[in-house]
Amino acid sequence: MSYRHSNRPSPSRSLTGRLRQQGAALVIALLIFAVCAGLMVAMQRQFTIFYQRGSNLFLGEQSQSYLRGAEDLASLALVLDYDQDKQREQPRDDLTEIWAQEATPYPLEEGGWLMGSLEDLQGRFNLNSLSAPARDNASTNRPRFTPSQMQFVRLLQALEENALGEQEAIALTEAIADWLDVDTQARFNGAEDDFYFGRTPAYRSANRPFASVSELRALATMTEPLYQALAPLVTVWPQQPRTLNIHTAPPTLLRTINANDDLTPLTVTEGQALVLKRQEQGFVDVEDLLSDPVFADRALDDVGNLLGTSSGYFLLSAQVEIAGRQARLYSVLQRRSRQVTSLVRASGSL
């Protein structure tokens, strides 16, 4: 009997080889799938970030466009008011005019809203008016405050819940004057670099006009409750102070009008009487205000020089909401005749 030798693999060995090849192919396929899935996840993440970033930029630009539109509308209202004032015998700016109306939300076509309001900055006390040096008073042998400084001392005592005593008000007024003047010599009750170097962190006095009301927080003897009470009543614009508008000044500021050498403010009752008369009859001019019985037998020529009836500087507070996101714009607008210019813009306080 003879046997033939065959090179053909056995069926079992051939099946095993095919299974091994298929297993290797499956592993490679799974590996490729895992790599592709990882790449897709990474690409999806990058795309989401890119999309969100683009959406944020678009919404930001859209919000800024609406806020600039609110600024244009505010400028238009101020120009219209100027044209109407020219037709009056005695032009003035008061709270009955178009620019002073209460803000109402304006609905936007794509959803959301836009609103804005104007406030007369010359209806606030200008902090930069405190920089003038006090004059010597020969009769009392001590410094005599300028009319603006005396008015501010009265204002600090008229803040109701956060009111200061007279000596505390004088100390803070002197500290502000030191903050503004160009020298480093501390005034009586004032503060200069030697005081502020002792704070943590240490800093120096500005020795220049205020750029923002928020600088008050850096001053000696200033507290946060006092700052919050004072901030809505003061401004740093214009940097060359103008007169206080008697038609737009709030009741607290009307109480700062008093006799030349009297550091106390008017009483709450006297202030309310002035506001009531302004609402019912109005004041023709500064002389009409100072002739009110509230000021009987008081010498008012010093403080009278600080008062006026018209304004050229206004604060726009605008707010917009788009896609559930809000943005704000604060803009200081200067009006000269029929021209309105934005002096500074910010998303925070001015």
Average per-residue pLDDT, rounded, comes to 88
Share of helical residues? 25-40%
Tally of contiguous helical segments: 9
Order of helices and strands: HEEEEEHHHHEEHHHHEEEE
Specify the oligomeric state.
Answer: single chain
Question: What percentage of the residues does DSSP assign to strands (E)?
Answer: 15-25%
Number-wise, the strands total: 11
Radius of gyration: 35 Å
What is the makeup of the main sheet? 5 strands, antiparallel
Supply the helix-strand structural class. alpha+beta
- Tell the overall outline: elongated
Please, could you describe this protein's structure?
- By secondary structure, the protein is α+β, with helices and mostly antiparallel strands.
- It has helices at residues 11-85, 147-157, 166-180, 193-196, 224-230, 251-254, 268-280, 286-290, 301-304; strands at 106-107, 113-120, 125-126, 135-137, 142-144, 234-235, 244-245, 307-308, 313-322, 325-336, 339-346.
- The longest helix has 75 residues, at 11-85.
- It starts with 10 loop residues before the first helix and ends with a strand.
Write a concise synopsis of the structure shown.
It is found in: Cell inner membrane. The protein contains 9 helices and 11 strands.
Characteristics:
elongated, 350 residues, transmembrane, two-stranded parallel ribbon, single chain, 11 strands, five-stranded antiparallel β-sheet, 39% helix, alpha+beta
